[in-house]
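Protein data sheet
==================
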Amino acid sequence: MDTSNHSLGELFQTLTQGISSLISQEVELAKLEVSHAVSRAGTGVTLLLAGAIVVGGGVLALAVGAILLIALVVAQWLAALIVGGATVILGLILVLIGGQRLRGIGRPLTSARVRKTIEANRTKQAQRAANQTQQTLVSAPGA
């Protein structure tokens, strides 16, 4: 780009427009990354729930079998309480572990990446503007 015919004001205007365009593009990139992550998470959660429903039916059948087996040794109501209590405890443990793993999905990585990219691009734009300004001052008449 030939900067000898451009004033300092025009160079700053070009720089401002470039930075504005860059920020807009970075925001769009962040939106796309978040959209992709949400889409993948949605598909994963759907499959997880479908599998959990199928497994739930199997667990119920196994629980009934366990109750009938334990009922051979103790009263039926006590067998149902033992199996039911064990199932609730196991379920709560699984819910807590799953909740912990879902808390940090995607967000820190995406926001950190966007901040790093924006900062790197700002630095590059500032360096280009400084170089263009220096070239303009060097090539100006009487310098």
About this structure: The chain has a mean pLDDT of 84.
